[in-house]
Structures are given as C-alpha cells and as structure tokens.
Design the sequence.
C-alpha cells in the first residue's frame, strides 16, 4: 500500500472484531517500523503500555466513556512519554553519528531541556504525535484499522497502568480489524487553514 492510500484509508474506527487476534509477527513489524518515526533530538520519548489483560481493558473502558474500542480492538496501546528521557544516557541516541556531531549535539541537548519542564513536555508530545501517526499508517499497511483516543480520564488511566512519576500519558491507540465506519469523513477546505507567508 502506498502512503497516500494508507492516509486515505485510515479512519478513527469505532467498532472492532473482538475475536480477532493479531499475530506476534505483525505486532513486531508494527512496533519496530513505527519506532522509525522522527523524535526531537532522537530521544524516542515513547514508552508504550500494551494492555493485553482483559480485566485491565475493562477497567480502562469504565473511565473512557465506555468506548468499545478499548476492549474490542486486538491491541490497546497507551502512548506515554518519559519526560526525563533527555537525561537518561543521551549518548545512546547519537551513537551512530560522527564524533563532531555528537560533540556538538550532546551539550546542546542538555542546554535545551535542563530546568525547562514545559519544553521537555512539549517535545515529548510532538514526538508521541508523530510516533502515533506512524503506528496508524503501518497498521493500515498491515491490513488493520485504528483509533487514536484521548476520551478518557487521564488520572484514572495513570493509576490503572501505574504510570511512573516523571512520565505523562499522550493518548491511546486501539488497533484491530474494523467492522465498518458509520459516517463519511469530513474536512474543512484547505483554503480555511492554509496561510500564505504570514498571518
Ligand atoms: C488526540 C485525538 C484524540 C481522539 N480521541 C478520540 C476518542 O476518544 N474516541 C474516538 O472515537 N475518536 C477519537 N479521536 C478521533 C477523531 O475524532 C477523528 O480522528 C476525527 O473525527 C476525524 O475522523 P477520521 O480520523 O475518521 O478521519 C481522536 C483523535 C485524536 C487526534
């Protein structure tokens, strides 16, 4: 499937076949390929909780407006960010870059994030957004549908998954075999949001 086709086919799917099981191989391809998404300073902030336990899925559904995707999709991934990833052995993020690049970037990275929690959070959320889009497009290519979700009580989900102190939840993505979408997609015209040169 080409990228344009995958983008066109992806929908925020509400109904999934609850009996479908995704293969371990498809899951491996999905996760490994999606991790090729770009991230700020290559920090790869994503820490993904793969919720397989049906009882935990039920608990999350209760705090997610009862949305059926949570329990019925083959995969429920809670996309979290490690807000301290920037200071957790950063040389590993640039290990394959030439030495002069490493020497330039590593001090820059520290300067960019240290003492700036809002910057760390913003960057982590940007990276999670790109990672999630990669997940949904790769899923599409593998024949799966998906639904990005933030319709849930973040504090309650944080408690359920035991979110560590310096982590934040971005959103969840449900992935599985969709059983059809009930309405046509709708977008405002490009002319309503494209701006030539400046506002
Ligand atoms: C951050 C985010 C959160 C969303 N949360 C939910 C959600 O909780 N439940 C849901 O059914 N759809 C959710 N959506 C899907 C949007 O409603 C959907 O993408 C939009 O209506 C456009 O439809 P389409 O994706 O099918 O083109 C979310 C999308 C994003 C990007």
Sequence:
């Amino acid at each position: 499937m080409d990228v344009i086709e995958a983008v066109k086919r992806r929908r925020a799917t509400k109904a999934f076949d609850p009996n479908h099981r995704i293969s371990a191989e498809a899951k491996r391809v999905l996760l490994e390929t999606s991790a090729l998404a770009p991230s700020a300073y290559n920090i790869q902030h994503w820490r993904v909780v793969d919720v397989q336990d049906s009882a935990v899925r039920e608990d999350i559904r209760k705090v997610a407006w009862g949305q059926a995707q949570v329990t019925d999709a083959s995969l429920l991934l809670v996309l979290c960010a490690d807000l301290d990833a920037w200071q957790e052995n950063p040389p590993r993020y640039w290990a394959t870059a030439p030495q002069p690049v490493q020497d330039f970037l590593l001090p820059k990275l520290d300067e960019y994030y240290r003492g700036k929690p809002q910057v760390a959070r913003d960057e982590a959320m940007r990276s999670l957004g790109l990672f999630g889009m990669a997940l949904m497009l790769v899923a599409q290519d593998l024949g799966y549908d998906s639904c990005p979700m933030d319709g849930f009580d973040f504090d309650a989900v944080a408690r359920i998954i035991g979110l560590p102190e310096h982590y934040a939840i971005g959103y969840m993505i449900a992935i599985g075999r969709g059983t059809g979408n009930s309405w046509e997609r709708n977008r405002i015209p490009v002319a309503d949001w494209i701006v030539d040169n400046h506002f």
In short: The chain has one domain: 3-180. The longest strand covers residues 167-176.
